[in-house]
Every structure is written in C-alpha cells, then in structure tokens.
C-alpha cells in the first residue's frame, strides 16, 4: 500500500508575527475535510532558522482523496483564510510514499 499513498510537502512563510495563526488554520483545515477524507497523517513543522517559516507534510490514501478533500467547500474556506496570512505563495511538492513507519509510542496525533 505504501507505494500508492499520496504525499504532500508544503513550505509556507507567514507574515511576521502571524505564524501561530497560520498553524491554527492549517489544523482547522485538516479537520474541515472530515474523518473519512483519506488524510492519514499530517505534521506542521517550524523552522529553526526562520520564525515565520512552516513546513507541512501530509500522507493521503491516494491522490483522489487529496484532490477531493482540498477542493471541498469547507477546506477551501479555511485555506483562503490562511493564505491571507502568508508573505508569499506557498510552495508544494507531491509524490508517493514508498516507506512509512509509525514510531509514535501512543499512536497520538
């Protein structure tokens, strides 16, 4: 199954001082898609060398699930809100997961 999972890597630069608002909206966006959206896991990461930079990684069951969820009205509405808080257009990179290993000790997200 790992070879068919769709992965997304995104880089965003928040407006100065707005990073935490962007993080909150990214989390809201993931929830807006619903529990059965096909989003398996995601992380929001901060950069050590830039207080306004964020890296987001997502793992989806497949590209169709990603496309359906991200084009849905609830997700689009939240996405538009955080795009207004970015200093530049986000950069996205897409691929397929070839290996996934869960090392979370309690399975938490």
Tell me what the structure shows.
With 109 residues, the chain is α+β, with helices and mostly antiparallel strands. 30% of the residues lie in helices and 31% in strands. The chain has helices spanning 19-32, 63-70, 73-83; strands spanning 6-13, 39-47, 50-60, 91-96. Strands 2-3-1-4 form a four-stranded antiparallel β-sheet. α1 packs antiparallel against α3 (73-83). The longest helix has 14 residues, at 19-32.
Give unreliable regions as ranges.
Answer: none
Query: Pairing-aware structural class of the strands and helices?
Result: alpha+beta
Largest sheet: 4 strands, antiparallel
Shape: globular
The overall strand count is: 4
Radius of gyration over alpha carbons?
A: 14 Å
| Mean pLDDT across all amino acids | 91
Beta-strand residue fraction = 25-35%
Compressed to H and E, one letter per element, the order equals EHEEHHE
């Amino acid at each position: 199954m790992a070879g068919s999972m769709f992965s997304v890597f995104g880089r965003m630069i928040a407006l100065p001082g707005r990073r935490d608002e962007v993080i909150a909206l990214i989390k809201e966006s993931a929830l807006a898609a619903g529990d059965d959206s096909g989003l398996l896991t995601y992380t929001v990461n901060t950069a050590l060398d830039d207080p306004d930079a964020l890296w987001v990684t997502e793992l989806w069951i497949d590209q169709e699930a990603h496309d359906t969820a991200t084009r849905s009205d609830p997700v689009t509405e939240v996405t538009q809100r955080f795009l207004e808080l970015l200093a530049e257009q986000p950069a996205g990179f897409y691929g397929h997961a070839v290996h996934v290993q869960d090392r979370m000790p309690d399975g938490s997200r």
